[in-house]
Amino acid sequence: MDLKEIMLFIVLGLMTFSSCKQDDTVAGNNVIEENKAKLVGTWNATEILDTGCTDPADNETQTFGCETVNGVETCSTGTFTFAADGTLTFSFSTTEDGIIVGETEEGGGTWEIIDATQMTLCLEGDCTNETYTLTDNSFTTTGTDTEFGCTTTITATK
After folding, report:
1. Is the separation of the CB atoms in 121 and 104 below 8 Å?
2. Could you tell me the CA-to-CA distances from 33 to 41, 51, 156 in Å, in that order?
């Protein structure tokens, strides 16, 4: 083998390795960027499920929506608004025949998509690593509440 052939194999080898590495990085970044874009907007909570809590009394399911009992329409709503800058706000309230009853719970935090299935969610300064699934109109995230030891799953729609 002469020097030209050796150099050709070295150059082809380097191109192959650098090409694969670059494609992998671009594909990973595309998933992260696509999921960031999908997550931005307002999501309506449909259910929050707490299971496996340290104190079994803390295990609960909170369902959102409206129901009419004895002629009174009671609605429980929860919204999460994810902004493109990585901040979020949330609001939970209950109404009876359109009038807010009790206190509206509001707050904020931050979010970051780590990869195709993992994100960091910080609500009121309490951060957790979450597993998530996301489509154009549905979002589910599951993480561990360190204060109560619960596994919390939030399901929402756009």
Report:
1. no
2. 15, 31, 20
Please give, one letter per residue, the 3-state secondary structure of 62-113.
EECEEEEECCEEEEEEEEEEECCCCEEEEEEEEEECCEEEEEEEEEEEEEEE
- What is the CB-side half-sphere exposure of residue 75 using CA atoms within 13 A? 12
The whole-angstrom separation of Cα 28 and Cα 21 is 11
Are the C-beta atoms of residues 132 and 119 closer than 8 Å to each other? yes
User: Residue 151 corresponds to which tokens in the numbers above?
Assistant: 């596994």
pLDDT in tens, 72-127: 999 999 999 999 999 999 999 999 999 999 999 999 999 999 999 999 999 888 88
Q: What is the pLDDT of residues 37-53, one digit of tens each?
A: 999 999 999 999 999 99
CA 132 – CA 50 distance, rounded (Å)? 16
Q: State in Å, rounded, how far the first CA of the chain is from the last one.
A: 63
Domains of the chain: 33-65+111-157 (2.40.128)
Question: Which among 47, 33, 9 is positioned nearest to 114, based on CA atoms?
Answer: 33
